[in-house]
Amino acid sequence: MKMKKVTAFMMTAALAASDLAGCGSGSEKQVVIYSNADDEAVEAMKETLDANGYEGKYLFQTFGTSELGGKLLAEGKDIEADMVTMSSFYLDSAQEQNNMFLDLTFDYKTLTEFPAFYAPITSQEGAIILNTEMLSENNLDRPESLKDLTKPEYKDLLSVTDIKSSSTAWLLMQALVSEYGENGAKDVLKGIYENAGAHIESSGSAPLKKIRAGEVAVGFGLRHQAVADKKDGLPVDYVDPKEGNFSLTESVAVIDKKEANPLAMEMAQCIVEKGRSELIRTYPNPIYEGEEADPENMSAYPKVFPEKLTVSLLERHQELSEECK
């Protein structure tokens, strides 16, 4: 019995020591970060945090855009994360519904106005992507517009993403609706889906992966990824569609929790102030004052959708897409 009492005492003492250690600056509670970012952005953010003293002080978990957006809307402040990097339109809608984000406590100067509760970290544009070898082998013309993708010559050689599962497809949808109206967009999208057939993907990066592998000749995806592949010498090229290069921003926000982890705000500031120099190499659109785009990376037809981007608008466009399948 003495041994049991001693053991119990030692365990209690060890737990108490552990609790006290947790209050010290050397072992802060880890910041939980949820993100919908691409691998390139996640790697850049991790490298930035690690290089600035935060290695081992955070847990990074990635989700699809729709999945993370659903969690933000459903869970609000009760979400496990302390900080998120997420498509800005989802952050806007989550804040409107749940009032769940803190105003950022650090200063930043963007080229366009953003709300006080998030700061943009990337801007991503859509474009038509090509496998140059397959174009040649199949005697295919280079498309100049999204409407060109409805031509019979691209039947079963085209890959696009389903807007219900990835926001990448929303860049295509915005271009079609802006140029042709909702009814005209339906006509074009029906032709695109017919040509894509089994190549309507659930992942935003899937069309580019099929382009790289030579499974299809043409696709729609994120412009910066095709630019990088072309520079790396892959048989990949890109076309800025005449309907426009529409863009989506992803931003960092801090959850307004009852027991907020102060490191979350510090890390958000670190990513914005220290990480942009790395992020802009992959995502070349300028966001902050003083940033300049490499002229070689600038799109030919940058455009902004005339309506504010919201989850409600996304859902409307998702319904439009479903009608075209």
TrEMBL record:
Identify the keywords attached in UniProt to this record, alphabetized.
Signal
Is ATP-binding among the key words of this record?
Answer: no
One Pfam assignment: SBP_bac_6
Quick check: keyword Signal in the entry? yes
Span of the secretion signal?
Answer: 1-21
Source taxon at top rank? Bacteria
Q: What is this protein called?
A: 2-aminoethylphosphonate ABC transporter substrate-binding protein
